[in-house]
């Protein structure tokens, strides 16, 4: 996992550290987690406890060697921000808040006859 700068860097980020996200692609698809770190130069994020890979570390002076599990970065396009209140994805959050009475008025113009402004 060498360092490589992204070809097209995202200018306006919607994902920040501490956000609750759902992974939408990869081996942890469908799981949720919290953003631990944002790497803007690579358009990647690290999700806490997800996308674990094995890292072989050689023993050296002052530290032990061995095989460790670390969190690998995910590309930003492979995660989706979740609404902190409902826990649903933020794109479909509006459909979860609309009561059935309001949604039937919006889709059926016949129901809006009595609801018009100024009608008595």
TrEMBL record:
Assigned keywords, A-Z: Ribonucleoprotein, Ribosomal protein
Family (UniProt): Belongs to the universal ribosomal protein uL24 family.
Endpoints of the signal sequence: none
Protein's UniProt keywords contain Transmembrane helix: no
Gene responsible for this protein: LOC109720357
Protein name: Uncharacterized protein LOC109720357
A single GO molecular function term of this UniProt record: structural constituent of ribosome
PROSITE patterns: RIBOSOMAL_L24
